[in-house]
Structure formats: structure tokens, C-alpha cells
């Protein structure tokens, strides 16, 4: 198994877990991360897509939230998202987070699915809801699936750390 899918409720620590593993194991990764909420002004905040590969015009807005209104920018996945994935040269790839914003970004989706088939280590965070395009990823035979709502953080960290150490060459 060389693929990992982590899910759980909002703010349960999915991205934090990935970041802690990267830090503690000193991992060199490519892929992308979704930013923590960014405050644009008093009433508006949002999220950005950040490529872990050096690409031009990084950190693009994928969602703005003003009150109850959400404005989505799925085209960012077809542009920055695709460029980030096409630039991957590392043997560890991070997808943080996969969800519904990119539901119509078919080229991006296909590139993500292709990485699950490659001989690389995939560390992915999945939105915890039924989303057609990502449902098959968590049910693959070569994928470890961890729900942080059901698995204590410390146990998840230790399990994933041991799994990664077994997959990685000795340093």
C-alpha cells in the first residue's frame, strides 16, 4: 500500500496531521495544500490553493465566504492545480484537500487519480462527505483510509509514521 486518505470533521486536525508527519520525518513533498482561512476584510474570508512545487502565480483563491454566501473558483484547479501536479518530481505527493470545489475540474481529477496508480506515496486529505469523484479513492485495495473522527490523533500519527518509515529508504 502506498496511498493514504485521511478524512474527518472540519477542524479535527487532518491538515495538521499531514504537516506534522512532513516535519517530523523531514519529508520532501510536492502536490498542493489548501490554506487555512484567510481574512480578506471584516466580513469576508476564504481559502487559497498553494502548490508545493515552484510554479508561477501560486496561492490563488478557490473560495470566498461572505456571511452565508460562498463564491467558488473551480477554474483554479484546472490552471494552478494542473500545473502543480504536472510539476511533481518528488516521490511523495500531498493532496490537501480534495473535495467538491473541483467536481467539474475533470483534467485535475484525472491527474489526481493517476497519482494513485503511480509508484509514489500519496498523502491525501478528503472532505468528509460523499463526493462521486473521490469516493473510489478511499476504497482502493492499495489505500489506507483513516477517519480522524473514529481514530485518536496520536494513534493515527503513529500508524502513519510507521507506515511511512517502512516505505521510505533509510536515511
Explain the overall architecture:
With 171 residues, this protein is an alpha/beta fold. It has a single domain, classed as P-loop containing nucleotide triphosphate hydrolases (Rossmann fold), CATH 3.40.50. The protein is built from five helices and nine strands; from the N terminus they run E-H-E-E-E-E-E-H-E-H-E-H-E-H. Strands 1, 2, 3, 4, 5, 6, 7, 8 and 9 form a nine-stranded mixed β-sheet that branches. Helix 1 packs across helix 5 and helix 2 runs parallel beside helix 3. The relative contact order is 0.23. This is NTPase. It holds the Pfam family NTPase_1. One of its GO terms (molecular function) is ribonucleoside triphosphate phosphatase activity. It comes from Entomospira entomophila.
The secondary-structure element order is EHEEEEEHEHEHEH
What does the radius of gyration come to? Answer: 16 Å
Do you know the CATH topology? Rossmann fold
The tally of structural domains comes to 1
CATH superfamily: P-loop containing nucleotide triphosphate hydrolases
Unreliably modeled segments: none
End-to-end CA span: 21 Å
Instruction: Report the principal-axis shape.
Output: globular
Beta-strand percent range: 25-35%
Structural category is: alpha/beta
The main sheet comes to: 9 strands, mixed
Helix content: 25-40%
Number of separate strands? 9
Protein name: NTPase
Pfam families: NTPase_1
GO molecular function: ribonucleoside triphosphate phosphatase activity
